[in-house]
Amino acid sequence: MRFGIVPLEFKPIVEQIVVDGIADFSRFSISSLIRLALQIEHISVIEVTMDIEHVIPGSLTQQSIEKMVKLKEELKHAYTVHLPLWSIEPSTFNEHVRKGSVESTVKSIELVEPLQPEVYVFHATGALAAEFSRLKLPKSMVTLISGYMASYAAKSIEEVLARTEIDPRKVAIENVEFPFEITRDLVDQYNTSICFDTGHLLTRYSGDESVLEFYKRHRDRIVEIHLHDGSYEKLGDSIVHRDHMALGRGSMPVREFLRELVRDRFNGPAMFELTAAEAKESLERIRTVVPEALKR
After folding, report:
1. CATH label of the domain that carries residue 251
2. Among residues 91, 203, 218, 236, which one has the fewest Cβ atoms lying within 10 Å of its Cβ?
3. Total number of domains constituting the chain
């Protein structure tokens, strides 16, 4: 199996640029973060978070992309890309916002094309769709509303594919806080792939089936995995959702799931959406319970 990490997450970026409570953006270096990430044993794939170009203006330019291409030639790693998700809503009925979401997505794909990413991870539905999907209404009504929003997501996917002429199989729609049975219809309609986020499923954001059940049902389209632990717990009248935890800290059946991936000879990237310390902890857990997953 091939493992990777997301070095451009919010926390490590803040740790790099904030000193004594003051932000110093001159300290930020994408190349340095990538080099550090690739020093972790078994890490060979880097996922580039495209929101960073908006959070830190000037951080992702044609010049920095050229440096990342040269770094790839030097270190022989692979790239995947997580398309923008903060402030993005491809499934909104507000046409101004939907078209802006499409525009942002298209511009990101065009910018990182020189990296030759293996996968472009895409959230077909955003925070508004998630909010509507958890309304305290009869399930049939929530399904109707979710389907309505998915129709706008379909328009967005179609426009992104048409404008970029990208191979739809390189676009991996992620299971997020939204009924995945509806999302799967979009995958089939536009012949895209799937990014399986294990934590989102373990928290029951995208369904209540097990990790193994989800993988077996959708293995025909899964090309990337966001690998992290999670849990779903009822405490009285409250429900506690937790994800983005190191493997072994939640309810993930680590051995059973990774053995299934090994049997399938799954070679898509398994990305840790975790800190470097949590990624190392997760790799150690894998080494302990299913060491064959670390063989390439």
Report:
1. 3.20.20.150
2. 236
3. 1
